[in-house]
Structure formats: C-alpha cells, structure tokens
Amino acid sequence: MIRWTHLVAIVGLGAAAAVAWPSGDADAKGTYESQYGFERTWNAGLRLVRVDLSLKVTEKDEANGYLLFDYRSPESGAKPCPGSMEFIRNKDDGAVRVVVQISQMPGYHEQVMVDALARKLRAEYGEPPRRPPVSGPKDAGPPDAEP
After folding, report:
1. Burial 26-51 (b: 16+ CB within 10 A, else e)
2. SS3 at position 54
3. What does the H/E/C string look like for 89-146?
4. Which of 30, 32, 84, 98 is the most buried (most CB within 10 A)?
5. pLDDT in tens, 37-73
C-alpha cells in the first residue's frame, strides 16, 4: 500500500518533470528529423512500437507514412491511449520528419518515444549518412552593362 508521503513525493516528481520538459502549445508533438531515409526510419519506428515497446499497432500505412498504436504507461493505467507516428518525406534532401502524438498523455511521453527512435536508428545503422547540401540556382553575377 502506498503511503501518503510516497504519493505526495510521486506527484511532486511528476510535476517537476512536467516543468523540466519544454512545452510549446497545447498540441505539443514529439518530432525528430531523421537522415536515415524513409525505409530505414519506417522500419525502425515500426519495430520500436511493436517489438521494443510491445504496443499494439492498430493501423499502419507505409505508402502514406503513418502508424497508429495503443499506448500504455503506468500513468495511463489499464486503459490504452491512442497514439500515432507519422513519417513525412522531405523531397529536397531525403530526410524524414517523424512526428509522434499521444494526445491524452503529457508531452514528455512523445519526446521519450522520439528519443528512443533516434537511439535505435543510431544503434542499428551507425551514424546517419551525410547528405550533400542542397544547392540553389547559381549566381549569374551582375547583369551586363549595355553600351
């Protein structure tokens, strides 16, 4: 049985964690910019949710780049919370922006998943490949003067 002092300490730690994590607007999302390409990022994200975190995937669509899952944590109790992971391709440099949303939980849950994905990608694939800088149109220089 939890003593009252333990409960107060746990609530206090939770409040401190909520203050320590940066929060933006009410629709905060965990985001990560992956340089590993879509296929590797998608596969690692799916394995993270299904295998590493043992969460139930309720829907997935690789072509459109999203997966939906039932998120469970000690804070959510026995009832799962809906969560999503979206993989957005950047056409310019091949990077993939990963957006994690678990709207019924504090934002740090999303950030923990994003951080776990970044660690998983680095552990499984090494350092991210270096992408060449995107070059814009070449500068033509000053216009020629007319005689």
Report:
1. eebbbebebbbbbebbbebbbebbee
2. coil
3. ECCCCCCEEEEEECCCCCHHHHHHHHHHHHHHHHHHHCCCCCCCCCCCCCCCCCCCCC
4. 98
5. 999 999 999 999 999 999 999 999 999 999 999 998 8
- DSSP, collapsed to helix, strand or coil, labels residue 31 as strand
**Residue 125 near residue 42 (C-beta atoms within 8 A):** no
- Of 38, 21, 37, residue with least CA distance to 29: 21
Mean pLDDT score, 2-24 = 40
Rg (CA), the chain: 21
Length of the chain: 147
Is residue 34 a contact partner of residue 124, using CB atoms and an 8 Å limit? no
